[in-house]
Design brief:
Blueprint lengths: L12 H12 L3 H8 L3 H8 L7 H11 L3 H8 L13 E5 L6 E6 L6 E5 L5 H8 L5 E6 L5 H4 L2 H7 L4 E3 L23 E4 L3 E7 L8 E5 L2 E5 L2 E2 L2 E2 L9 H12 L7 E4 L5 E2 H7 L5 H4 L2
Parallel strand pairs: 3-4, 4-5, 9-12
Antiparallel strand pairs: 1-2, 2-3, 6-7, 7-8, 8-9, 10-11, 12-13
Helix pairs in contact: 4-5
């Protein structure tokens, strides 16, 4: 299936700084006092006006639990993931949302496919889905936010044989469709085509029901893990520490070559994120 154009990283340096500050419960004044970095400088970086130099990045990282060298590379704009070829996956933008939707085939010689995170203009999405004569077995939804599921009703109506798969905590977001959705339980696997399976991986943190889907060497992460970043936290029960712990335990233990297909931004690989994601240290990434 065709590849997508080069996409900007989902998070700017300001976004990374904001997420780590929120997760560490540090406001600008407290962070400035802890790092001896001027408040106006931090405020400017949060607004993506400039970026910290190496010394400033090191001091910020130490207080925010980031890896200093990785954060420095992000601050300099010196890192971007390499090319990820995924013949079984077709990515599509989901305008007016700035999110990625996907169609993934079970195998090149099989017609079975799954839709990941149906969102955006339903007419545009359905026209895209009908471009190929595929048999959609599942509608996989990573979490409850509109930019990942607000076209679920239209897609489910168009493909009534496709089973919705979504964590029961987030499923109320899709209304009456939730009643028939397959719930997500850790280590559960769904048959997919003649030779493949979909592994269901709960990763609460971004939302309380955020989940990932693994199909062979492909991993659909929604807003849990991005290239060089992680999702923000908007749950009631789970938060920043849970998000990072779930990424370490459930995702960073997968093979390095695993392709990461996130809900925003470009694809990446588990190995690259273990090496470059500033939210994790070298020691954490090697465990």
């Amino acid at each position: 299936m065709n590849q997508w154009p080069k996409l900007d990283l989902e998070d700017t340096v300001g976004d990374v700084l904001r997420k780590t500050m929120r997760g560490s419960r540090l406001d600008v004044r407290t962070l400035a006092a802890a790092t001896n970095v001027a408040e106006p400088s931090i405020e400017a970086w949060l607004a993506d006006r400039g970026a910290p130099d190496s010394n400033e990045a090191t001091r910020l990282a130490a207080s925010l639990g980031m890896d200093a060298q990785r954060f420095q590379r992000r601050a300099k704009g010196a890192w971007y993931p390499g090319e990820v070829a995924t013949p079984l996956v077709r990515q599509h933008p989901q305008l007016p949302h700035p999110s990625n939707g996907y169609v993934v085939r079970a195998a090149l010689d099989e017609p079975f496919a799954a839709i990941v995170d149906p969102a955006g203009d339903p007419a545009v999405l359905l026209a895209r889905l009908r471009e190929r004569p595929l048999e959609y077995s599942y509608i996989l939804i990573t979490h409850k936010h509109d930019d990942h599921c607000d076209a679920a009703e239209a897609v489910a109506s168009a493909y009534p044989n496709a089973r919705i798969v979504m964590h029961e905590v987030d499923a109320p977001a899709i209304g009456a469709l939730a009643a028939d959705a397959i719930p997500i339980r850790k280590a559960d696997r769904l048959p997919f085509g003649g030779r493949n399976a979909i592994e269901l991986i709960p990763t609460p943190g971004h939302t309380d029901g955020s989940s990932c889907f693994r199909i062979g060497d492909l991993l659909f992460t929604g807003d849990t893990l991005f290239a060089g970043s992680v999702g923000g936290c908007f749950g009631d029960r789970f938060g920043y520490d849970d998000l990072l712990a779930n990424i370490r335990r459930e995702l960073f233990t997968l093979p390095d070559a695993t392709a990461v297909l996130p809900g925003h931004g470009p694809p990446t690989r588990i190995g690259w994120e273990r090496q470059e994601n500033p939210f994790f240290s070298n020691e954490e990434s090697s465990t």
